[in-house]
From TrEMBL:
Residues 639-658 are annotated as: Disordered. It comes from Profundibacter amoris. This is AsmA family protein. Pfam families: AsmA. The chain crosses the membrane at residues 7-25. Residues 596-638 form a coiled coil.
Length: 680
């Protein structure tokens, strides 16, 4: 828009300078003179064809026939400007006093072609005949001289902008411009209307110091842009070379279709509450370095209102980077629960499987972001959250949602959820739920109010696929859950087992339990569990099996036991198989399992009896062996004593009878030998 404005002003000035002189010339010399003067001033050829007519009253003026202005020599054969005619009028009475006041300049049905070469040259960069504009010279770098213009008009124009470096082409049609500038150094008013991508757009601007503004300075400015039912208003100060602005913005984006239509795009089909209509107000700053900043901002997305600050960094970035922090009261995103059939109240995916529509995550690649949100409450339709603190970090199509602290159903949710759109879609998370009340949660989720307990949940998961069906069939991960002491209303589990009647209600019509807990793993969309434990004063239950998350199927076995003894032993056990689909589960007694269990119990009892009898026999054998050994030891001791008495010997420590007898014999032999030697 800055380039367009400067170009049109240059054209107006050239027309004023060149055509004013024509007012005092004979008609047959006007066209030739204007062409020569224009080429001398700009180095471009101008051709005026048809009649050139002058008028005297009420305005002294001149009107030409068709006019063309040649393009730059590098830009091709199409003229830069082609118009059906030009006209200019001056104030006749002021002219008598020696003051030339331009009352009106009009360009009729201009076709304007603006081009930028690959090396940065622009076709609107002009130089006097004999001079050459340098490649890459900034467009409009020369100062625009002062002039006054009570009214400058462009009617029925068309502007085409082509950037040969990027291949970008923009066309503005039905272009009408109304410029009012009675004093170049004072206020100027511009009204502009056009069609962009077929969508009508209008702009009304008032510049406090027009001359300063158009030559690159900063001036107070108000502007209003309208397209369809959307309006963007600005009140502050701005400059165009380089472009910068600082002021208050009030944007009422009630017509998203018109707004996106201006950009040549279809408006996204956003859920209500996410921005079908929007309103933005606050203090906005756009710097010459290509950064935008919002302070004291208020953003309304349909019925939801957020306040806070945002910084947007554009220059030098592969994609815009948005950093912000928002606060909100109660946010209503209840429309996100639209997957529930309004007529039947049944979840659509439960009856027909998971949706197979491709999930479009292309929006993840449009921007990088680091945004935080603190809200008093968030209504997600089926689930309602209390005070919440969350953060979103988006980097190259990968969004990480940090649940810093989310209060829900008297508990706390924390953890991380990831949506990765790099080369396909994957979702994952590591979530923890602490001390959550099950009754209000299950009432909102499934209209089920019979479970009263406080629970903890931990789940870590990963799913890959471009559809919800593919993601659910690929889920992997693990987790656990525990429920503390609670009740199941409307069900007397112990009475049902004692009476072998699944319809049994019982006097208390509830089952009190001490705890429920389980761990699980997930692989290829199937949840596996083998340690479900239900503990109650009068009953217990164990469970194991599979839950097909991707296929929405069940294959699970629960073995409840009605306890007979206070120590938790004995009682009646009836295994139950749960099979079928989520939409149509089937419950039946596991007779084979019951028989197998009874056989296993009998086998265990028999094995225990045999083990006890074996242990008793071994004990008797050991006792008899010990008694026999004791008798043998006694008889051996008596025999040894008789031998000692017969031999007349006494054994010393560690000495056998044989050794004692040998010792005594040696002693007797030694005495006999000594006596014999002594007698001789």
């Amino acid at each position: 828009m800055r380039l367009i404005l400067r170009f049109i002003l240059v054209v107006f000035i050239l027309i004023i300078v060149g055509v004013t002189a024509l007012l005092f010339m004979p008609g047959d010399r006007i066209a030739k003179f204007a062409e020569d003067q224009f080429e001398a001033a700009t180095g471009r050829q101008m051709d005026i064809t048809g009649d050139v007519r002058t008028s005297i009253y009420p305005l002294l003026g001149v009107r030409t026939g068709p006019v063309t202005i040649a393009n730059a020599d590098w830009a091709g054969g199409e003229p830069m400007l082609r118009a059906e005619g030009l006209s200019i009028g001056v104030n006749l009475m002021a002219l008598f006093s020696g003051d030339v006041k331009i009352k009106k300049v009009e360009v009729i049905s201009p076709q304007i072609l603006l081009e930028v070469a690959k090396d940065g040259r622009a076709n609107w960069e002009m130089a006097p005949a004999g001079a050459t504009a340098a490649a890459g010279t900034p467009s409009g770098s020369g100062a625009i001289p002062a002039f006054t213009l009570e009214r400058g008009l462009v009617k029925g124009g068309k502007l085409t902008y082509i950037d040969h470096a990027s291949g970008e082409k923009t066309v503005l049609s039905d272009l009408d411009i109304d410029l009012r500038l009675p004093d170049f150094a004072a206020q100027g008013d511009i009204s502009l209307s056009m069609r962009m991508h077929g969508q009508p757009v209008s702009l009304d601007t008032t510049v406090a110091n027009f001359g300063k503004f158009i030559n690159g300075g900063v001036s107070a400015l108000t502007a209003s842009i309208k397209t369809g039912g959307s309006t963007i208003a600005f009140d502050g100060k701005a400059g165009i070379s380089p472009f910068a602005a600082d002021g208050k913005v009030d944007a009422d984006l009630a017509d998203m279709a018109a707004l996106f239509g201006v950009l040549g795009m279809d408006a996204p089909d956003l859920p209500k509450g996410m921005g079908r209509t929007a309103r933005l107000a606050g203090d906005v700053t756009y710097t010459a370095q290509g950064t935008a900043h919002l302070r004291n901002g208020s953003i309304r997305l349909d019925q939801n209102v957020l306040t806070g600050a945002v910084d947007v960094f554009i220059a030098g970035k592969e994609r815009p980077f948005v950093k912000g922090q928002f606060k909100a009261g109660a946010l209503d995103f209840s429309v996100l629960a639209a997957s529930v059939d309004n007529e039947t109240g049944a979840a659509v995916e439960t009856a027909a499987g998971w949706p197979k529509d491709v999930i479009d995550v292309s929006a993840l690649s449009s921007v990088d972001a680091d945004v935080g949100l603190v809200a008093n409450a968030i209504d997600l339709g089926t689930v309602k959250l209390g005070p919440s603190s969350v953060a979103v970090k988006l980097d190259r199509s990968r969004a990480v949602f940090e649940l810093n602290k989310v209060q829900a159903y008297q508990g706390i949710v924390s953890g991380q959820f990831v949506m990765n759109g790099r080369g396909g879609l994957s979702v994952g998370g590591d979530l923890k739920v602490a001390h959550m009340a099950m009754q209000p949660l299950l009432k909102d989720l499934a209209d089920y109010e019979r479970l009263i307990a406080v629970g903890d949940l931990r789940v870590k998961f990963l799913g890959v696929g471009n559809t919800m069906d593919a993601i659910m069939r690929s889920l992997s991960g693990d987790g656990s859950f525990t429920l503390g002491q609670g009740e199941i209303l409307g069900l007397d589990l112990a009475g049902m087992l004692r009476n072998l009647d699944t319809s049994y209600q019982g006097k208390g019509q509830k089952t009190v339990f001490n705890s429920i807990g389980a761990t699980f793993t997930m692989k290829d969309g199937v949840l596996y569990n083998d340690d479900l434990a239900f503990v109650a004063p009068l009953a217990r239950a164990d469970g194991s099996g599979e839950v097909g998350i991707g296929t929405q199927t069940l294959n699970y076995r629960i073995t409840p036991v009605a306890l007979a003894a206070a120590d938790g032993t004995g009682g009646i056990s009836v295994p139950v198989l749960i099979t079928g689909t989520w939409a149509n589960p089937k419950f039946r007694p596991d007779l084979k399992g019951l028989i197998d269990q009874n056989l296993a119990d009998e086998k265990a009892a028999l094995e225990a009896k045999l083990a006890a009898e074996k242990a008793a026999a071994e004990a008797r054998l050991q006792a008899e062996k010990a008694a026999l050994q004791e008798r043998l030891d006694a008889e051996r001791a008596a025999a040894e004593q008789r031998a000692k008495d017969a031999l007349g010997v006494e054994t010393q420590d560690g000495e056998s009878i044989e050794d004692a007898a040998r010792r005594k014999l040696e002693e007797e032999a030694k005495r006999g030998l000594l006596n014999l030697l002594g007698n001789n």
